[in-house]
Amino acid sequence: MKTRRQGFLKGAAILMGAVVIVKLLGAFFKIPLSWILTPVGMSYFGSAYSLYFPIYSLSAAGFPVAISRLVSECCAKGRFRDVRIIHQISVKLFLCVGLFGFALMLLLAPPYAQLSSAGQARSLLPAIWALAPSIFFCSMISVYRGFYEGLRDMVPTAVSQILEALCRLVFGLGFSIKTVQIAAEEYAASKTVWGVSQPTEEYARLAALPMAAAGAIFGVTIGSVVSFFYLWCHYRKTGDGITQQQIMASPEASEPKLLLKNLWHMALPVALGSLAVNLSTLADAAWLNAGLRILMGKNAASLLTQYAGELPAEVIRLGEVPSYLYGCFTNATTLFLLIPTLTQALGVSALPNVTAAWAAGSKKQIANSLKMVFSVAALLAIPAGLGISFLAKPICTFLYGLQNAPGITGKILFYLGFAAIFSALGTSVNSLLQAVGRADIPVKILGAGLLVKVIMNWILVPMPQWNVLGAALSTLLSYFVILVLGLHFLHKVTGIQMQIFSLLWKPILGGICCVAVALAVEKTLSGYFHISITVLAAIFAAVIVYLLICVILHALPREVAKKRRFREKKKGCT
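^ that's the sequence the OP posted. Answer follows.
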């Protein structure tokens, strides 16, 4: 093949670099958006995504992994004719699946909005309708991303992700700001918002939020359209990199029906597993809102006392406390998701390499790959998770401002920071199970985690002392269960002992030390400098200390260190 392929480390570096850029662009989008929408508006934003994600799971989430694994396996066996047929049938399949997902989201929008918003469906529907077309385009995007990932070319995926995030920032934030401005001008001129009379300016601001959230989400849809057209144009221009000589040397192509069957067989378990994860967000949106409203009806005094001084007076007066708390949960979840997204890039990059090693029957290579992926995931996830847990309130104050209840969001984030560690490690383990051909196991594991999540939500959220924090704790427990079960089945399938303690003790020790330094710096500087300087200085000090400890303890995975020394030696010789 033409030299566009990358190894695991280079591919992971490309994807993780893209993830860092995407998350920075996402921060520039989400943080100002939280100031514009306030937690009430963010609850509309988060609730729309809660319906979107499960449908996205069925329409798109499982297929990139399936295509990547099937393409990688065919390349390893020299079946390059099959690779091209896989692309052809994928386009047709995803076209139908994407249209089905789009129609399903439109169909489910009214009953879901009615359930999750407790009779205020009109507030939520605009955001759902603005997001629905993205289902179709994301389904088509998954064809090309999975195809190129299977060819070990991570650049198209990385570029498309950055374009998607950039459009989300520019158009989403722009539409949201403009919508709020139009509503404010209408109220100033006629005391109405969208043609409906509003008694006070506070009511007018709240009335503008549903359409402002929809404007922000429409930017997400535009991003998916632009991302798809980039990938489509890239494929039309550069193709797949398979040479004519490789085609001539390839065996006769398999029957398209057989390849379609294999693709569907691989994709369905991954899609169901992703569905199980995303159903937990749906459970949060539906049950958390409903549970908090029940709690407000039965024991409002306890809830208001617990968050005294942190809930705005107009939110209490207008009966929007449940939406406000759910908005805080949405803001905390945004930070929680940063860490698993990084390690997911590792899994995507490792999948073709592990699949090729599994197809070749090289147990030593498989063992090295498994340990490397898990080690690198731990090195990233543990300090980051501990950091956002113990610096939760300062981070939320810095990012979201005092007007967005950083005290409440910080309490939620404390639990979600630990959950992020288990989620990030569990994501890597599940990717490895998919790579060795057992995509069915993550489905069962994630289903068990969903069951834990639902049961604990049902128990904890109605309890006055837990309320919205109960959803965060249930998330932590569910991801812990997912990780433990994933490690058990990975050992059972591969026969490889991961030696968890030896892989984790260095990241844990380094994480504890860097958090201790961060807390000390934050406490020392907090009385003298602005919160932004305090938090950034604490994070910078923590990173430096963590890197030093990793170097002292030789925490870098052995295979990574070997490759680095080899490159340095080669460079020295030249």
